[in-house]
Amino acid sequence: MSGHSHFTESVEEYLEAVYRLEREGMGVSTSAVASELGVAPASVSGMLKKLATDGFVEHVARGEARLTQKGLEIAVRVIRRHRLAERFLVDTLGMPWDQVQSEACMLEHAISARMEERLDAFLGHPQSCPHGLPIPPRDLSDPPRPGSPLAQLEQGSQVTIRGVTHEVPEVLRYLGDLGLRPGVVVCIREKAPLGGPISVEIAGRVHPISLELARMIIAEPLPHSAQTR
Predict the structure, then answer these.
(1) Angle of helix 69-87 versus helix 6-24 axis, rounded to 10
(2) How far is Cα 67 from Cα 52, in angstroms, rounded to an integer?
(3) DSSP letter at 178?
(4) Phi-psi bin for 3: left (phi > 0), alpha (psi -120 to 50), beta?
(5) How far apart are CA 159 and CA 151, in angstroms?
(6) Angle formed by the axes of helices 69-87 and 113-122, to 10°?
(7) pTM score, two decimals?
(8) 110 lies in the same domain as 181
C-alpha cells in the first residue's frame, strides 16, 4: 500500500499541473489548469483556494497562482517519480512511448523516496523522460530546457528534436510513426504561409506537419558549422 488517500493524490495532481504550467506552459490560470487536468473550471477554482489555504500555492496578479516552497517540494517529487517511471517503462520494459503516460500516472503516487533513489541510479540518472520533458532536480532548481517550438525555427535549418510538450497518445503514436523522436535530426524544408503546414525531412522523406503540431515539438538548431543543405 502506498499510504496515499484519493484526496492526497488529487492534491499531488493539481500541484503537478501547476508546476508544468509555470515552467512549461503559458501561466497558471483557472482555465489553463482545467484544460490540463480535464476538469471543470469551477472545480479548479475551489481546489486552488483550498491549496492556497493549506499553503501549497499563492495567488499572484491577474488571478493566476504559483507554487510556494511547500508546494514546489511536492510537485517536484511527483514529477520526478512520474518521469523516472516513464523512462523505466520504455527503456527497461520496452513499452511504446505512447502507452506509458497513464501507467506512470498511477506509479507516481506509489513510488517511495527509497525506490525513487534506486530507480534514478538504475537508469543512469536520466535528465529527461522518453518524451524529452526534463526530470527536475531534487534541489528544486529549474532544469535546463534547450530548444524552441519547431514552428518558430527557420526554414532550411537542420534541427535536433528535443521533446514533445503534449503527452497525448495519439500525437505520440503519429510522431513515432514518422520517426520524430528526441535525438533525431531533421531538416525544415518549407514553411507554408498563413498558418499552413511545415514540411520536414526525416531520414530522406519529406512530411507535412500541421502548425498546431509543430508548436508542440521542441527542437534545437544544429551549430552553423554542422548544417548541411
Answers:
(1) 90
(2) 9
(3) H
(4) left
(5) 12
(6) 50
(7) 0.87
(8) no
CB 40 within 8 A of CB 31: no
Q: Rounded to an integer, what distance in angstroms lies between the CA atom of residue 183 and that of residue 169?
A: 19
Q: Compute the CA torsion angle 72, 77, 83, 89 (nearest 10 deg).
A: -160
Same domain, 30 and 131: yes
DSSP H helical segments within 96-135, as ranges? 101-107, 113-122
Amino acid (1-letter code) at residue 155: Q
- Cell 504550467, located at residue: 21
Q: Which helix (H) or strand (E) holds 189?
A: strand 185-191
User: Any idea how long the chain is?
Assistant: 229
Report yes or no: 19 and 72 within 8 Å, Cβ to Cβ.
yes
Reported as a pLDDT band with limits 50, 70 and 90, residue 1 is: very low
Q: Which residues neighbour 37 within 8 Å (Cβ) at sequence distance 6 or greater?
A: 13, 14, 17, 44
Domain boundary among 127, 142, 157: 142
| Region 70-97 average pLDDT | 96
pLDDT single digits (tens) 31-79:
889 988 889 998 998 999 999 999 999 987 666 889 999 999 999 999 9
Q: For residues 138 and 119, is the Cβ–Cβ distance under 8 A?
A: no
Q: Do residue 158 and residue 102 come from a single domain?
A: no
Cell representation of residue 1: 500500500
Residues 7 and 57 in one domain: yes
Distance CA 123, CA 86 (A): 11
Q: Which of 142, 159, 190 is where one domain is finished?
A: 142
CA triple 135-76-19, angle to 5 deg: 95
